[in-house]
Amino acid sequence: MDLKEYLKQKCQLVDQALERYLPDAKELPASLHSAMRYSVFAGGKRVRPVLMLAACEAVGGSADAVMPAACAMEMIHTYSLIHDDLPAMDNDDFRRGNPTNHKVYGEATAILAGDALLTEAFILLSNGTGGDPAARLRVIQEIAVASGSRGMVGGQVVDMESEGRHDVDIATLSYIHTHKTGALIRASVRCGAILGGASEEQFKSLTRYADAIGLAFQIADDILDVEGTTEELGKDAGSDQARGKATYPALMGLEASKARAHELVEIALDALASFDERAEPLRAIASYIVKRKS
Amino acid sequence: MDLKEYLKQKCQLVDQALERYLPDAKELPASLHSAMRYSVFAGGKRVRPVLMLAACEAVGGSADAVMPAACAMEMIHTYSLIHDDLPAMDNDDFRRGNPTNHKVYGEATAILAGDALLTEAFILLSNGTGGDPAARLRVIQEIAVASGSRGMVGGQVVDMESEGRHDVDIATLSYIHTHKTGALIRASVRCGAILGGASEEQFKSLTRYADAIGLAFQIADDILDVEGTTEELGKDAGSDQARGKATYPALMGLEASKARAHELVEIALDALASFDERAEPLRAIASYIVKRKS
């Protein structure tokens, strides 16, 4: 299959849906709604929504059933980036080559735009009457748990507390990754499965797939930070090292990290063994993780 | 009825439930969970949960059905206070006589504790299997809309943008209040009604009640800032004026503000005219708003 074309098509669908779901930039308070849209449409690769769509497809579900949840996930991912970039956190001036939210709208509005995007996700998840209410509650639960103190936010706290420390071990690094980035990836795949009507067996297999690619994705990111160029990445290459951040290459070496990433991709593909050709996009995404350059 | 005793009992129930629902302070990341608990248990009056319980009671519902949503509402209220107090926002060092969250835990953890409390609210609202799923989705929708860019966060942005300006009119001040504080009060009462099984008629009356007391509460707050003492308020009296904040007393005079607050309490009581004695707590709360000293 042509993954590039698949990703392009799905990204367009997600972008169109986000355009519809988000309040208009002119709606009052315009500063807030502009700030929300600024970061949502700042060139994100829509990894999580595409994973949700692909997981839903893999079990025979329709894209329509999953689009609100897919966009909610992207809003949560975006809010987390806005807050991570704040002066009190990572203090980043640029993201994907563009000025960060607080550099454009000011710190207060950036905090509130993040808050509003997180909230908007739950507005979207609970909106309207489509779909089985019990399944929708389960999806809200998945996404909320993955985003909260036992998920993404917890990972961000441990990441922050680990920065500049030289005693960070693999267990802590693994905690950071499974929580900070892994939790939303897992929830994306699982929600796609739930809304696509997956069997219990399929749900478990897809969870295994998600956990493997989530970690592979993060290790690949760490490797890219070492090997990529600033131009390719749209951010400073080598920034992890400059910050004294614990990374897989730093803790287990570059070659062992690459081997681990490849191994995880194999685990992900293995988890999909019993799925038919409708899981091809998920397979292609797993393989792509260790090949990408940015 | 003895409102003081009623409030005390309900506050205790809410506190016990919050204690159960929130992750333990020792659970990792401990800094995050401690920070979340610090602000939740910093002496809040539990106005919103009590209103939800009382509204549920007024239509014959049980406290059990509404406690998770009541606690979720308090978590959202608490997150909003933590973020409002941040240096980039109101830059407050004290709240209710205690150091604010970022003064104790640092700015980064305070931002994340706020994020996690907002998320925890939706974990709680979507948790377990109790109750009719469709009603629970409706409650999530109510609370999310009230908290988001068209509700509380929107009000906070306009409030922030109005600070220090001398051209703030009654329409803008009313926007700020109906959004920044009114939206959560309205949602509290409405969710109590939904979960208590209110009729459409009762739901409309309770909405009218909520809108009236929400605004009365805010006008009374503005009046207290002028007339109260720092000791009574647990914060600096006259702080609104010192900041150049638009208030009802500043815009329409102290006496007219008092008259308006009393008028709104009458409207609230009138909205409850067709309710039986189970609405006594709601009636007593409305009357109390214009009598309180802090």
Question: How would you describe this structure to a colleague?
Answer:
The structure is a homodimer of 294-residue chains. Chain A has 294 residues and is mostly helical. The first copy, chain A, has one domain (3-289): Farnesyl Diphosphate Synthase (Orthogonal Bundle), CATH 1.10.600.10. Helix content of chain A is 72%, strand content 1%. The first copy, chain A, is built from 15 helices and 2 strands. In chain A, strands 1-2 form a two-stranded antiparallel ribbon. In chain A, strand 1 and strand 2 (98-99) form a beta hairpin. In chain A, helix 3 packs across helix 9, helix 8 packs antiparallel against helix 9 (170-195) and helix 9 packs across helix 10. The longest helix of chain A is centred in the C-terminal third of the chain and has 28 residues, at 200-227. Chain A is globular and about 50 Å long. The interface between A and B is large, with 49 and 49 residues.
Give a brief outline of the structure.
Chains A, B: One of its GO terms (molecular function) is prenyltransferase activity. Chain A is an all-alpha fold.
Primary descriptors:
homodimer, 294 residues, mainly alpha, Farnesyl Diphosphate Synthase, two-stranded antiparallel sheet, 15 helices, 72% helix, transferase (chains A, B), Isoprenoid_synthase_dom_sf (chains A, B), metal-binding (chains A, B)
